[in-house]
Amino acid sequence: MSRFFNWLDHRTGYRDLMREALYEKIPGGARWRYVWGSTLVFTFFLQLITGIFLWTAYSPSAQTAWESVYFIQEVMTLGWLVRGIHHFAAQAMVVLLALHLMQVILDGAYKAPREVNFWLGIILMMIVLGLSLTGYLLPWDQKGYYGTKVATNIMGATPVVGTGMKAVLLGGSDYGHHTLTRFFALHAGILPGLLIFFLVLHIYVFRRHGIHVKDPDRAPTTTFWPDQVLKDAVACLAVFAVVLLLACTKGAELGAPTDPSVAYAAARPEWYFLFLFRFLKFEFIDSFGVAFGAIYIPGALMLFLILMPLIAIWRHGHKLNVAFTMLMLVAVSGLTVLAVYDDWYSDHPQSVEFRNDVAESHQAAERVKELAAGPDAIPVSGAVTLLRQDPLTQGRQLFAAKCAACHRYDGHNGKGFPVLVGGKETPATAADLGKFGSRDWLRDVLVSYGKVFEPINNATRDGESLGPLYLGDDAMMAAWSRENQEVLNDPKNEAKLRALIEFVVSQSQRADLAPFDDALVAEGRTIFETGELAEGSFSSACVDCHAIHPAGEKAMLGDFGGAPSLVGYGGRGWLTRFIANPSADEFYGYDSSKCIMPGFEESLEPSELDLLVRWMIGDYYRAPQTTE
């Protein structure tokens, strides 16, 4: 080995280079405050290594980007760990950059003759921020897509060149495949290459002038090796430990695949850009236009930062620079805290909408992963197709858009959130459909009809309450429920009531309600026809008003008596027909004027109606339950 290293040194002179690098003098001794530059270099190379591994599996196209990140995250061996390290190392670089910049300014290490090195550091900072911005889009999920849209719209506000720059970056007039490929080229090729180039220059200029020490007499002069190397190594290990901990416990997020047709009100930049996002929300800034708050003011602050080495020439210039740095630190921190408060803790309607959209986005993200891992896997058309054709995803969206103005679903709008108007929760004007067609629903309708349909009291027509029309003595089912309270609540009739409910529910043939008890169904059929119970009987049998075609029988049971037909009640076909045209003869033929529900035959496509109905009856894919 000695002969080999002698040969290598003779050809390259590496020993002199190593000696010069390792035995650089450090006046005042090694210190922890000098570790930030080394941790930055370490974190960048951590990014570089993990980025190469990610590159081997990533496919940069609008139809495969999310899918390849899903493969990395969920399928590739330790892919989740590699992506987690890459993700959190990127955020660590921003923190370390801020600490390094503060240390340089506080120590006066930016002053002559080190001003060129300071300017090189500013360039490196901008490249790192550019890497963060371009990497944000690459998963091609909703969060990254809309967050990047906000950032590029701000860039487009730059006077004169903004529109052209935006078009070049997007690869056209809109966001799509070319946008993604250009961001990938920047993130994985151009910007890392520039960073390495300027990093080499930065280190070269740093070596030329040596380390700047604010108080060289605090301790005896030492060398970079071994004392400062040890501190740098410990600091790098600490950074890696934090990144690894976050990668293992929190993990890199992967949202739902990009779907430009779905609005996303929770678009936000990464946390280190939140201060600018919040700054732009101030009314006085908004009144001057986006360019003023996003371009002119940040540009002026950046110009001051660049001019710091020249300002420091003045007598009190260094103190002014330090004061400016501290002021900016307080302002950025304050605006970031304010942005977080506004989003997560404020009761403002926009804040509530933001939190709802975030929760909905998480639901969609978990759902698409569940579907992607299912038997159909990811189709050729991309993962977004899974959500677009998923009754669970689309059904609750359609319910919120079309039905929640009147109905509720287990007390919410179908997506799990209250129905708000002007920031205030509004009452329902029709029945809650969370349990529609189920055994519990039928029991409640029979035993306490008025309670089920109580929200109708909030509905009005021509200024008059509709409650009496639907819940009064003239309302047949409401009156029947009141008349039969005694026999319905008699414990001796519990078994008979359960049999009647089983018979009606079985007509739906819904898979989510199966299996049906055949013995109870047969017994319930008799009760439906006769009204006879164990103790007493109904004031009128069900068949006196309702017609039904019992499943498995040829003949109709009963004649249409003016009340809604119960043929297939609560099932896919019945619900589809009812939502499409609720005033049809089979539902309100005896008095269609009583039907206040609008028909959705024209406003919903057949495929949309089918998705809504299938969601309501639970006809959608569920991942098999694992048992331990």
Describe, in plain words, how this protein is organized in 3D.
The chain has 628 residues and is mainly α. The protein has 27 helices and six strands. A two-stranded antiparallel sheet has the order 1-2. The chain starts with a helix and ends in a 12-residue tail after the last helix. The mean pLDDT is 91.
Labels describing this entry:
628 residues; 27 helices; mainly alpha; two-stranded antiparallel ribbon; single chain; two-stranded antiparallel sheet; 59% helix
Which class of secondary structure composition applies to the elements?
Answer: mainly alpha
In whole angstroms, the N-to-C terminal distance is: 55 Å
Reported for the largest beta sheet, the result is: 2 strands, antiparallel
The count of DSSP E runs of length 2 or more, i.e. the number of strands, is: 6
The radius of gyration over CA amounts to 34 Å
- Biggest sheet strand order reads 1-2
- The total of helices stands at 27
β-strand percent reads under 5%
Helix percentage range? 55-70%
Weakly predicted, low-confidence segments: none
Principal-axes geometry comes out as elongated
- Overall mean pLDDT: 91
